[in-house]
Queue: 2 jobs
Job 1
Amino acid sequence: MTKKNNLDLNKAVKLLSQGEILAFPTETVYGLGADAENPAAIQKIFEVKGRPADNPLIVHISSHEMVEQFARDVPDEAVKLMEKFWPGPLTLIFKKKSSVLDVITAGLETVALRWPRHPISQQVITMAGPLVAPSANSSGKPSPTKPEHVREDFGDDFPVIEAGETEIGLESTVLDVSQLPFIIYRPGAVSAEDIASVSGVNVETNNEQTNNNSPKSPGTKYSHYTPEATVTWLNEDESMKAPNTLYLLHIKNPDFNTDNVVSYKSNYGQMARELYDRFRQADHMGYSHVKIEPFTIVELREPLVQALQNRISKATTPAES
Ligand code: TXA
Ligand code: MG
């Protein structure tokens, strides 16, 4: 349903130039945008989300000139990645220019940049200038894939450029290209294999524990993507008939038909698109448990399945505080 605070582009650009924050669609999830050159506006993002100040933000751009504004020492191998995957669901971490605001980078020497491919994100960035944008959810909640998710977290009147459900549904791949080998901090739709073959550089996936207090990518230490319901992996021999339980399956396809059993039949694109909405629905519908069929090594070859595994694993880990 469209709300009165569904912004059009011109209104959105005006609000951003006045130092306001608002939600806008990207192809991954909705972002909570602020003018990347306005520290007071950026501060509002941390307040509204309840985001720890040591968790840096991604700057969203829509041109190569904007890369120059924030990044220095861009390696040739990263240029290949930009040519191949931008605009798209890949965030690149570069050494930062000294002019980049500390509130964006949480004092790190690096800055994260992403050129989203959603036409509305591109338009709003081109008109308003670079935008910092975390996912538009309260800290600790699943990322928003629909305008109503944003308003669940920030209230009915919160300004959103509405554009329906997002295309991918999981956040971008976060890749550090400021050093060798490149390191993936967060898997997403762009895979390690694609990055290695396009860039010709070795790619490692970061295995830092969530309880490490000074990880290279601060976001990895916080609990994410967690509904109120307890999320666990489904055991092989479970009946799928426990009370108050939502089952999310991808291979299993039981012959009984009930609302609380969803089978994706290997459609991992749909599973990724719907995961966070299912988490939120589980809470609305009062389920106490969400049980998810685990992925096999063969299924985990697919990039989206790696991203699903990462987000679900985080949801199964109890919150730090
Ligand atoms: O798909 C996405 O990336 C979405 C849409 C809105 O673009 N944005 C998003 O932002 O997921 P956020 O803030 O929810 O997640 C960004 C992640 C965090 O884990 C943060 O710690 C990490 O990127 N990050 C940002 N800047 C970094 C830096 N300079 N070094 C290491 N990690 C960084
Ligand atoms: Mg987030």
Note: Residues 134-135, 143 surround magnesium ion (ligand 2) (CB under 6 Å).
Job 2
Amino acid sequence: MSKKVVHLAVFASGGGSNARAILEYFRNREDLRVSVIVCNKEGAGVFEVAKAFGVPAVLVKKAELNNEGSMLELLARYEVDGIVLAGFLLLIPSFLVRAFEGKILNIHPALLPRFGGPGMHGMHVHRAVVEAGETESGPSIHLVNERYDEGAVIHQARTPIDKGDTAEAVAKKVLVLEHYWYPRVIERHFINAG
Ligand code: GRF
């Protein structure tokens, strides 16, 4: 990327712990800035995170997300170069995939290509992993295309699943890895390799 400051939009639907980890990591940086947080759920925790970091947050419901004119205008207003999904539950429309080709990342809380796809989010994922008797799990960070969790994986991290670990225990272990790796992979993708 030739521009000096990379501007990112973080899209989130929930509590925003990954959004927080990203904002903390890039807090004092001049080369990468989160210029806007986009959330589709009124009252979601991520609005508080945005407030705490002084980052503008915009409520964008499904109909607006799918409205090409208004979405591209919104992202242009915040000079967005790339999009980072952090617990965003809506499918990214194809006009956005085309407009930001190779520049939309997602984090999924399991080792793709297994345990992904429509409906596989949050605790559904960790329960499926435990029920399948897996001995390890971990986040996958991948490029986003028009299908849930199918874009090219660019990073995975692993943690063992111990005998007797509940889905909640696995979720906790995976989340620690998410918070560590997501900002670093974002840095590598948008700055070092940009
Ligand atoms: C994370 O587990 C992430 O992998 C998934 O959604 C969850 C979001 O959690 N895509 P949070 O809102 O960042 O706490």
Note: The two ends are 5 Å apart (CA to CA).
